[in-house]
Design goal:
Blueprint lengths: L1 H8 L4 H11 L1 H16 L4 H29 L1 H21 L5 H13 L4 H12 L3 H32 L2 H19 L3 H5 L16 H31 L4 H22 L6 H16 L8 H29 L5 H29 L2 H24 L18
Helix pairs in contact: 1-8, 2-7, 2-9, 3-4, 3-8, 3-9, 4-5, 4-6, 4-15, 5-6, 5-9, 7-15, 8-9, 8-12, 8-14, 11-12, 11-14, 11-15, 11-16, 12-14, 13-14, 13-16, 14-15, 15-16
């Protein structure tokens, strides 16, 4: 396992690109919980908290493909710093709207999300120009999917640590600083400054003209819905058991499981094709989340969310491989951005639904939203495979192939 990852990190710039990109992506793990805790500290109900958090996620979902298309057209250096600067204004405006104004908070969350820099798709698009060996590129995709879980381990824990010693608004400020510093550091190396997308065939749909890509996005949207429900359910569970900081710990445990599962998955060669692996992984996530509806003891909840996380990063790695196969030429960044968008759109739906379910029915209902989302994600992937419209072969290294 170490040999595979050591090889992909040995070329010049690869370590720096990965570290700086992860720093800039830290807000992805911090912002949802930071926004939720900040708004709760202002006395807003779970329905409102879930709605504003959903607005942030939906705005990222809308802005990601638009910024990805801009990157494919103008390059990463011209797009990333501008988007990061505008997103920072949104986060700081959210802090300023902490007087209980729901409209102002919602508008600020939309601005912060809409212009969130698309660092994830940019790095995944860049790997083939930094790494020449196809095996190294494949390992880099797996490592990227695994280490992004560090964001979801460190992010919530950092938010919990900050809110335990300072006002919740401090967590939003730190989120902003991390995004700006990471983005500006990432665009310094030569590969980023010189990267250009391949020529593309003009088409308003871009990568979405690929049927197989659209099929994948449906399933991943429900994976995102489960993650969004988990964000809200853990905050509600924290209050239910009266244990401050438990929400961040549970989210961190889930992400730690994903980190371990992803690293193990990426170090092995698998005989089953990608669509079959994706279906099995989604089934595993669903089965691990199912007992949460019973609202068990915190230790049991921790074990369950950890086991669920073991399947998360491998499932996302399958998504990277599939996108690499089916993205039309010249649309790779936008295609990867659409994957992020699918997850975020589902995340926003899950957050909003779980918040409303908790407020109207009870905490068990917020966990039920998580379970139902997982069931639909698995069923959708299984249905596509049974219908012989599977997602693709076992691996993919670039986005040069034409759409099917």
């Amino acid at each position: 396992m170490l040999a595979a990852y050591r090889s992909c990190l040995s070329p010049q710039h690869s370590k720096y690109l990965l570290i700086s990109n992860l720093l800039g992506r830290l807000p992805n793990g911090m912002a949802p919980l930071a926004i939720a805790l900040f708004l709760r500290s202002q006395g807003l109900g779970f329905g409102t908290v879930g709605a504003v958090t959903a607005l942030y996620g939906l705005s990222m979902a809308v802005g990601g493909p638009l910024l990805g298309r801009a990157v494919d057209r103008f390059g990463q250096v011209r797009v990333l710093p501008v988007s990061a600067g505008i997103s920072a204004v949104g986060f700081l405006a959210l802090v300023g709207a902490g007087d209980g104004s729901v409209a102002a908070a919602s508008a600020a969350a939309v601005l912060a999300g809409l212009f969130s820099p698309p660092l994830e798709p940019c790095l995944r698009t860049l790997w083939p120009s930094v790494l020449k060996d196809p095996r190294d590129i494949s390992a880099a995709y797996a490592l990227d999917a695994s280490l992004q879980e560090v964001v979801f381990v460190a992010g919530p824990l950092l938010v919990v640590g900050l809110t335990s010693v300072a006002d919740p608004s401090v967590a939003l400020v730190v989120t902003t600083v991390a995004m700006l510093v990471g983005t500006l550091a990432y665009i310094v190396p030569e590969p980023v400054r010189h990267w250009r997308a391949e020529p593309r065939t003009p088409d308003w749909a871009g990568p979405l003209r690929s049927v197989r890509l659209r099929q994948l996005l449906v399933s991943l949207a429900f994976v995102g819905a489960g993650l969004g429900a988990l964000n809200i359910a853990t905050v509600a569970y924290q209050e239910h058991v009266g244990s401050d900081g438990l929400s961040g710990i549970l989210l961190g445990v889930n992400a730690a499981g994903a980190l371990i599962g992803g690293l193990y998955y990426g170090a092995r060669e698998w005989r089953a094709d990608t669509s079959q692996r994706l279906t099995v992984l989604l089934l595993g996530m669903f089965l691990c989340n199912l007992p949460l509806v019973l609202v068990p003891h915190p230790i049991v909840v921790g074990v369950l969310v950890f086991c669920s996380g073991l399947f998360l990063a491998p499932a996302l790695t399958c998504g990277f491989a599939i996108i690499g196969e089916v993205a039309p030429q010249g649309t790779v960044t936008e295609a990867f951005a659409w994957m992020v968008t699918a997850v975020l759109a589902g995340n926003a739906l899950g957050s909003s639904t779980a918040g409303t379910a908790e407020q109207q029915v009870g905490i068990w209902a917020s966990f039920l939203v998580l379970v139902v989302a997982g069931a639909v994600a698995f069923a959708t992937a299984a249905l596509f495979r049974r219908g012989r419209s599977g997602f693709g072969g076992p691996t993919a290294l670039s986005g040069k192939q034409a759409a099917s």
